């Protein structure tokens, strides 16, 4: 449904947390130092969402393309993910945050998968805020995985091709049942989506900032929310239709 955005905060914010490497390099530090500082920015963003009535925060932490980075950096990122999950689980739970991890977790090994399962289970009943971390995630992977499952159901005779709808595919993507992001933020100055939530961001409001992820603070978040509020979401309708709250005619 079209919404008047003036006072509304986005229900679901998705962020491509980019710029950690450059943040560190600007200081003459190794890139991994930027990723460490990036974890601080994640903590801050989660707190911000909790305080501002945002229901879902989805964070892009590692893309399916990031395996192409130097082995040492990939190792450092995996290590940081593991240690952050371990050290933050309790506090997330105390703050009634529900944590979910999406992406192809197979290459991460049993130890990581077990920790993810434990954290998801521990926090599964929490309702203050849902935090979704996307690791080894790619929007194309997400769509292809859903297509595979659809094809399997069709081959087994459980689904007729003419019954396949957008809803069918949506239900099989990894973010389901969480609704699509309202606001899609990318830090770090690049103007691209880098294969994040391609299906789900079809109608998200896009917001790009040059601020590097470790520097993204409450003030930067405020600016992104203000930008969101100034947008007119029409979802294909005319501005007049949206204003009159009329879905047809007008
Ligand atoms: C984003 O920061 C974090 C990950 C991709 C894991 P980058 O590491 O891409 O930082 P830049 O873009 O090189 O500055
Ligand atoms: C996108 O950032 C992925 C994450 C933030 C996890 P990248 O730095 O990998 O994106 P590109 O390579 O500049 O497109
Ligand atoms: Mg980058």
Based on the coordinates given, report the CATH architecture: 3-Layer(aba) Sandwich
SSE order: EHHEHEHEHHEEHH
Rg over CA atoms:
19 Å
The total beta strand count reads 6
Task: List the quaternary state of the chains.
Answer: single chain
How far is it from the N-terminal to the C-terminal residue, by CA? Answer: 16 Å
Ligand types: 3-methylbut-3-enyl trihydrogen diphosphate, magnesium ion
Given the helix and strand composition, which structural class is it? alpha/beta
Given this structure, which CATH class is correct?
A: Alpha Beta
The biggest beta sheet reads: 6 strands, parallel
What is the tally of helical segments?
8
The CATH superfamily title:
Decaprenyl diphosphate synthase-like
- Which fold does the CATH topology refer to? Undecaprenyl pyrophosphate synthetase
Question: Overall pLDDT, averaged?
Answer: 95
Question: What's the structural domain tally?
Answer: 1
Order of strands in the sheet with the most strands?
3-4-2-1-5-6
Question: Fraction of residues in helices?
Answer: 40-55%
Shape: globular
| Strand residue percentage | 5-15%
